[in-house]
């Protein structure tokens, strides 16, 4: 097994938003536990926050051996530079074998910068992780070529091996409440907290309050919706199902709905239990953002629409006829 002079630990970068732990932290910690057991190594989960509404030691229940806490005012708002500095400093000092971070908006922002700082590579947006039984190296699977193939990537010449992983890729196992972790507060030099970015505050933008990546049901609309007001139909359906509204790039480009709702290659990647594609043709770029959904319902008037190839339920017809009927049926129940 290739281990070099590294500690061999798996370092998971956790995410806390306004005091609340992002579920991806638990998913990644549990996956890291599974990988670490095969490598015979430990799992360290790093948390950076100004406040937190949980007992951080509880991450042991999902497999953390060490919970590394860096606490302070600089984490009140997300600051890419501070995240990058802290994570890079800790990687250089701890020499982990593997570093995993969630492919959330912030994870996608700081991890490339961390990779550059610690002179290693990064496999972004993974949907599968495994260990090569011969080399002990991480096998990182992700969609490639616009989502047309799944590529499994090994980076034997670049350590630590680093990957970002799409939220909701891995199931969360039942917590083992008897498990304990050591909580550590590492000493860090003051300069890691210095930044050329000063965050003055946060402004609300339509669509930012709900992150469609975290939802079980996403109802997405495309160019077939024809105008902004027609998205109200999808909002009604989504709200009845306890979900949120997504969109194709064509709908976003037409300014019918804001960018945080865009699903696809240049938007968000979602993995809900149910994904509705309404008036969306199913371009490879759109599929790249939703094809890991458990169940796809497609509504399109074109029987040849490519979206039907990935649909579990294909409803061929006019969306302005079909969607109100679905809403009506749900309301009857
Ligand atoms: P269209 O392809 O125009 O499809 C509209 C569909 O609506 C048609 O299938 C039509 O049959 C159906 N329809 C029309 N009226 C009705 C009706 N009354 N009832 C039922 N069905 C109806 N796209 C994304 O979505 N996300 C991305 O992140 C993304 N990133 C991209 C990145 C790059 C680099 C590039 C080059 C492109 C990207 N695209 C992305 C754009 C992508 O190629 C498509 O142009 C886009 O997905 C098309 O959106 P659409 O399906 O809504 O529109």
TrEMBL record:
<dbReference type="InterPro" id="IPR014730">
    <property type="entry name" value="ETF_a/b_N"/>
</dbReference>
<keyword id="KW-0274">FAD</keyword>
<dbReference type="InterPro" id="IPR029035">
    <property type="entry name" value="DHS-like_NAD/FAD-binding_dom"/>
</dbReference>
<protein>
    <submittedName>
        <fullName>Electron transfer flavoprotein alpha subunit apoprotein</fullName>
    </submittedName>
</protein>
<dbReference type="InterPro" id="IPR014729">
    <property type="entry name" value="Rossmann-like_a/b/a_fold"/>
</dbReference>
<feature type="binding site">
    <location>
        <begin position="248"/>
        <end position="249"/>
    </location>
    <ligand>
        <name>FAD</name>
    </ligand>
</feature>
<feature type="domain" description="Electron transfer flavoprotein alpha/beta-subunit N-terminal">
    <location>
        <begin position="10"/>
        <end position="192"/>
    </location>
</feature>
<feature type="binding site">
    <location>
        <begin position="262"/>
        <end position="266"/>
    </location>
    <ligand>
        <name>FAD</name>
    </ligand>
</feature>
<dbReference type="InterPro" id="IPR001308">
    <property type="entry name" value="ETF_a/FixB"/>
</dbReference>
<feature type="binding site">
    <location>
        <begin position="279"/>
        <end position="286"/>
    </location>
    <ligand>
        <name>FAD</name>
    </ligand>
</feature>
<dbReference type="Pfam" id="PF00766">
    <property type="entry name" value="ETF_alpha"/>
</dbReference>
<dbReference type="GO" id="GO:0050660">
    <property type="term" value="F:flavin adenine dinucleotide binding"/>
</dbReference>
<dbReference type="GO" id="GO:0033539">
    <property type="term" value="P:fatty acid beta-oxidation using acyl-CoA dehydrogenase"/>
</dbReference>
<dbReference type="GO" id="GO:0009055">
    <property type="term" value="F:electron transfer activity"/>
</dbReference>
<dbReference type="Pfam" id="PF01012">
    <property type="entry name" value="ETF"/>
</dbReference>
<comment type="similarity">
    <text>Belongs to the ETF alpha-subunit/FixB family.</text>
</comment>
<feature type="binding site">
    <location>
        <position position="300"/>
    </location>
    <ligand>
        <name>FAD</name>
    </ligand>
</feature>
<dbReference type="InterPro" id="IPR033947">
    <property type="entry name" value="ETF_alpha_N"/>
</dbReference>
<keyword id="KW-0285">Flavoprotein</keyword>
<dbReference type="InterPro" id="IPR014731">
    <property type="entry name" value="ETF_asu_C"/>
</dbReference>
